[in-house]
Specification:
11 strands; two-stranded antiparallel sheet
Length: 292
C-alpha cells in the first residue's frame, strides 16, 4: 500500500509539474501573441529613413510592448528596384512606409498590395506621398498614386495636384489644429514646435475628403512668394478601407525632437489599436545627419 501511495504521489507530482510547464509555455505564447507586429518598409534617397526608423523600432520593442521587423532598400538607400523581405508584411499588424520614387518589381509590389487589401492600418512619412515613380505606360504605373490610394495625399510629386515644397532653405513652424487638440495621437506633443522639414504643398485638393487634420505647418523663409500654411499630419480611412496616419514631416532632425518623437510613438500605438501610453518612456537619442 505504501508503495502504491508513493507511486501515485510521484505520478501526481509529475502531472502537476507538466501542467505547470504547459501553462507557463502557453502564457509565454499568449504574451508574445499579444504583441502587435510592426513592419517598417524604407527606401528613400534623402531623409535617412533607414537610419531614423530603426531607432524608433528599437524603442517600441524596449519600452512599449511591440515586436518589429525592419526592411530597407538593397544594397543601399539609392537602390530603387529592390526591398528584400517584403513577404514579412504577411505577419504585420501595422505597416510603416518611408519610401521615395521606388520602381520595385511586380513580385515585390504584390506583397504590398496584398497587405493593403487586408484593410490593416498603415503609417507613412514625408516622401511616401510619392513612393513610386514608374515610367508612363508601365504595368505598375498606378502605384505612382500610392500617396492618394493609401494616405489621402496627392497622387505623386507635381502633377495635377502641384505637389511641391517651399525650398530646401526653409523650415516649418508646426501647430496643433485647435479642433484636434484632444486627439489621442497628439498626447504630450505640445501646442507647437519647429521642424527642419521644408513644408510640402498639398492644398487645396488634399488631404482628400474624410481626412482628419491634426497639425498645420507655417513656412519659414520659403522660396515662393505664394507659400501658404499646409496640413502636415492627418488621419483617415483610405481607398482600401484601412485607417492611416501620415505626416509630411520626416527630416532626420525632426526625429531628434521630443514633440515629433511623441507624435510618432502615439501614432503607431493608435494604428495598432493600443491605448496611447500613459507614461512617456523618455526622449530617444536620435542623431542622424541629413544627406545633402
Amino acid at each position: 500500500m505504501k508503495k502504491l501511495r508513493a507511486t501515485t504521489g510521484c505520478f501526481l507530482l509529475c502531472f502537476l509539474l507538466a501542467a505547470s510547464f504547459c501553462s507557463c509555455a502557453q502564457n509565454r505564447k499568449n504574451a508574445s501573441a499579444k504583441k502587435p507586429t510592426i513592419i517598417f518598409v524604407t527606401g528613400d534617397h534623402e531623409y535617412s529613413g533607414e537610419a531614423t526608423l530603426p531607432l524608433v523600432a528599437a524603442e517600441l520593442e524596449k519600452n512599449y510592448g511591440f515586436q518589429t521587423k525592419f526592411l530597407k532598400a538593397f544594397p543601399d538607400h539609392n537602390s530603387e528596384e529592390n526591398i528584400p523581405g517584403l513577404e514579412a508584411l504577411k505577419e504585420a499588424d501595422v505597416a510603416v512606409f518611408f519610401l521615395r520614387w521606388r520602381r520595385l518589381p511586380a513580385n515585390q509590389v504584390k506583397y504590398i498590395e496584398d497587405y493593403l487589401k487586408t484593410g490593416k492600418p498603415v503609417v507613412g512619412f514625408r516622401t511616401t506621398t510619392h513612393a513610386f515613380n514608374y515610367p508612363k505606360g508601365h504595368e505598375l504605373e498606378k502605384w505612382n498614386s500610392f500617396g492618394e490610394l493609401v494616405f489621402n495625399a496627392p497622387p505623386g510629386w507635381g502633377g495635377k495636384a502641384n505637389h511641391t515644397h517651399y525650398g530646401h532653405k526653409s523650415t516649418t513652424d508646426v501647430t496643433i489644429i485647435p479642433e484636434a487638440s484632444k486627439n489621442p495621437i497628439l498626447t504630450g506633443v505640445g501646442n507647437n514646435f519647429h521642424a527642419s522639414s521644408w513644408l510640402y504643398k498639398v492644398l487645396p485638393d488634399y488631404p482628400a475628403k474624410g481626412s482628419t487634420w491634426l497639425l498645420t505647418g507655417h513656412p519659414i523663409n520659403p522660396d515662393k512668394k505664394d507659400a501658404t500654411d499646409q496640413p502636415v499630419a492627418w488621419t483617415g480611412k483610405n481607398s482600401y478601407g484601412a485607417k492611416f496616419f501620415i505626416t509630411t514631416l520626416g527630416h532626420p532632425e525632426d526625429f531628434s525632437q521630443e514633440p515629433f518623437q511623441r507624435l510618432v510613438i502615439n501614432a503607431i500605438h493608435w494604428a495598432a489599436g493600443k491605448p496611447i501610453p500613459k507614461k512617456w518612456a523618455g526622449k530617444m537619442d536620435i542623431s542622424v545627419p541629413y544627406r545633402q
